[in-house]
Amino acid sequence: MEPLIPVITKLQEVFSVVGREIIQLPQIVIFGSQSSGKSSLLESIVGRDFLPKGSGIMTRRPLILQLVHVASLEERQATSPETYIQAEEWATFLHNKHKAISLAPLYMTICSSKVLNLTLVDLPGLTKVPVGDQPPDIEMLVRDLNLSYIINPSCLILAVTAANTDMSTSESLKLAREVDPDGRRTLAVITKLDLMDAGTDAMDVLTGRVVPVKLGIIGVVNRNQQDLHTHKSISEVLCDEQVFLQKKYPSLASQNGTPFLAKTLNRLFMHHIRDCLPELKTRVNVLTAQYQSMLQSYGQPVQDQNATLLQIITKFATEYCNTIEGTAKNIETSELCGGARICYIFHETFCRTLESIDPLAGLTILDILTAIRNATGPRPALFIPEVSFELLVKRQIKRLEEPSLRCVELVHEELQRVIQHCSTYNTKELLRFPKLHEAIVEVVTGLLRKRLPITNEMVHNLMAIELAYINTKHPDLADMTFVSSSISGNKVLGGGRPASPHLVPGLSPR
Predict the structure, then answer these.
(1) Disulfide-capable partner of 28 in 156, 439, 441, 464 (CB 3.0 to 4.6 Å)?
(2) Mean predicted confidence (pLDDT) in 271-278
(3) Selecting from 3.40.50.1970, 3.40.50.300, 3.30.70.1400, 2.30.30.100, what CATH number does the domain 27-271 have?
């Protein structure tokens, strides 16, 4: 089972590229309250200083730490003297500066003969109050980030709590119980055993009498601030830890401490991988079948990319034109489409709208009277002034502009629908190249959108042309009675006698 951990570690690197949400791999997540000693605990396990320390939130992104056990320098030199790495231990680390909390994880791999094979995830510490440059919702951001990792059923939870705080109020154990009520994935770690108040100890806590934890509770001693100032090495701290445990907790010394924690994690991780393997294998098989099917649907490799590109674009353009002309191979039977619908818009929808417009709607006799009188000034007129006629006629002609613009909009919408129609019947080829499909749709849509204001402007110009010249020679005008007989005589001319009928165009003698 031991070789499984390096395999999982390698898979972690692969899924860091394709996305970790595809398959939830087994891992150990370390989380706890801010300044609970998580970073110092990790450094003690690794045996090196490599994490930031200080007040406030120092861990701002998830750190996926991969520990890889390698042979010692002497062993590697003896087995492969030409290709071995001339270093006792080494690490690879991609680092970016971040002031705020980020969901994007950092990946760090440490290869050493002094570590056990493990995959650990260090998360930002749980906090309550934002300080400095932290966002006001820092508490919820950190909590949600921690939950997104520990809720994964494939991860082991390492809940860290400081010994100088009340175990019953541990925020890490509270969250762990929410996502792991049975406790099958939770291991508790009590840090800072040497910082407890004088006269107190953690015996009840370490034996599980205060808060029982199914996988156990392990106590450790971290480097304190004085150790950091004096640059005490981690090896010296581990020696001091054993001395402290033997002196303070002699009966529990062999079941606590950082070395025992590392071995326990290695054992639990190995068994956890074994338990997750059946489900993991099933998930991999399902995804493999799905992607194999998708790969086969893409067809054979493209030999000539330029020719294939031109062929797909030409086929799409031909299908688009054929749909409008009515010569497409795939003809809709359930609804009008393409050119047929455009024809319907012009000859049915647009025509009915024009026919429904009453030429005299909104034009009252009072409006006509007022326009005529305003055009004649202080003198009564014998003839109807052309100015008032053109004024009233232009106002009625202007009403034709709105349905004309609506007709343009309907045609534009149908041309947009033709794009989806052509995409539907070119599904296989376009699904093979989804980005090309998006580009074609975007270009055609953009072209139609670009021509829409130009077409609307043409409609405006046509209306302006009609309004610029009123054709009084049109034969239809001679047959129209555009001035009612009820407004003849005094009502039209304002005089005391009715005017002669022949003086008013459009009126016939009674």
Answers:
(1) 156
(2) 86
(3) 3.40.50.300
